[in-house]
Amino acid sequence: MAPLASMQVSTFPVKLGNLEAAQVEKKLDDIAGRLGADSIRGNWLPGSNLYSLELPRQPRETLNYKQLTAPKGGVLPLLLGMSNGGRLACDDLTRLPHLLVAGQTGSGKSTAMHVILSTLITHCSPSQLGLVLCDPKSVELKPYEGIPHLLNTIITEPKQLIETLEALVDEMQNRYRQLADLRVRDITAYNKKADQPLPRIVCVVDELADAMIAAKKKLEPLLQRLLAQARAAGIHLILATQRVTPEVLTSALKINAPARLALTCDNFHSSKAILDADGAQRLLGEGDAIYKTPDGASFRVQTPFIDDDDIDLAIDKAMQMPPSGFKLNLPKTQAAASPAVQQVPPSSKTLPAATPPLPTETLPKLNDIREYVSSLEQVTANDLVSQKLVSNKKLAGKYLKVLRDEGLVDAYNRSLRASPVHKRDR
To answer: How far apart are CA 45 and CA 83, in angstroms?
Structure first.
């Protein structure tokens, strides 16, 4: 049979006859060596009794984001790329309803995430879609900061992620109460009847492994609950990781997230962890992926490349959209930092290297202490303790060093020489 050409591989359908597919798969590495190919993947062709051998093309073509257009009509369009047969690979996140994305470093995972996010923010208005973004690296999702779709600041710490997931669980429960009041079963039916439609919420975690290592006991139950129950409430998760192990992608998480996008993995065990099957370790990298649908079928796709200019264009389009009035009830610790708290990091840079950073939970008191010190001619650590502004002298000394570096008062140096304290009447 004539091969089926795509941008990355050529697919050769063959009849196995009396051969078992498992026998062929054991010889794939040997066949690749004889043909001089980087890697050969074997798979049954969907909807036929033919087995296919997928050989890398030379040269390989690059699929660009500009070449693809997500079809209209989807609620949350999920643009994946181009399938082996040259067809557009696109799905709807509301159908999945959650997605796991995994692949080793350099496989194209981050690029695929940018394609998904750029498609969502350009096809959905803030009144239709609210985004919650978690970026432990603090740089990958930074360009999306400030777009009207965001429901909170971009999360960078596991503690913030846990608090946000708890807020999403509360929002899910609140939405179910609203659904019950209108006697409807899901958010689609609710939005048809309600005076104020609710936007769907998509929570994107760019590197799940970092958060799972830091706080697995607290994080996993929250993820399980959202994956299992949040679909009807219109809350969807996209979880991505480059550490493809059973410790990160646990069975409890995967059972409620049947849709998977697997990019190149380093070994068979990683492929089993994401796809529950062989094959991802034979991918070619640079966006070559296997998409497993919720119904269990899988096919090979080439995810597109998106450059910074295309991301900026998508963000510029999103910035022109009117903001939504919907607000997510987040913990106070994730509220926008006050001016006093924002001044602490620059000041703390001038502290001696041996001085540990100020505890985060006590930073809000810095403004109160600054106001108190500004009304004194001299101040010592004993004053701050006696006024119950801090709990101990050691912590008071750290605050005084910050204030000294700011140039607010020079009494700290005099206090070191045990000068007497004189308080000014207020």
So the answer is: 12
Q: Which pLDDT does position 338 carry in this prediction?
A: 32
CA dist 162 and 169 (Å) reads 11
Residues paired with residue 247 on neighbouring β-strands, in sequence order: none
Q: What is the pLDDT of residue 336?
A: 39
Quick one: tokens of 48?
């036929």
Phi/psi for 41 (5° steps) reads: -115, 135
Cα separation, 305 vs 317, whole angstroms: 19
- Strands 259-262 and 235-241 turn out to be unpaired
Extract the tokens encoding 96. 């999945």
Q: How far is CA 177 from the centre of its chain?
A: 28
- The alpha-helical segments, DSSP class H, found in 153-240 are 158-182, 187-193, 208-229
Contact call for residues 286 and 302 (beta carbons, < 8 A): no
List the structure tokens of 237.
């998760």
**β-strand partners of 90:** 79
Cα–Cα distance, 112 to 303 (Å, whole number): 6
| Residue 371 half-sphere exposure toward CB, CA atoms < 13 A | 9
Alpha-carbon torsion (178, 180, 183, 186), positive or negative: positive
Q: How many residues does the chain have?
A: 426
Residue 166 near residue 334, CB atoms below 8 Å: no
Question: Which pLDDT value is given to residue 404?
Answer: 65
Residues of the chain with pLDDT under 50: 333, 335-362, 375, 377-378, 409, 411-426
Strand partners, 352: none
Coil, helix or strand at residue 81: strand
pLDDT in tens, 82-92: 987 778 899 99
Alpha helix locations (H) across 230-307? 251-254, 268-275
What mean pLDDT is reported for the chain? 82
Closest C-alpha among 340, 424, 419, 384 to residue 410: 419
Q: What is the pLDDT of residue 379?
A: 58
